[in-house]
Amino acid sequence: MSRAKGNIAEERACEYILQEGFSLVQQNFYSRFGEIDIIAIKEDVLHFIEVKSALDYELAIQNITPRKLSRLIKTGDVYMKKNALTLDFMYDVILVTPQKVWHLENITI
Question: pTM score, two decimals?
Answer without folding.
Answer: 0.93
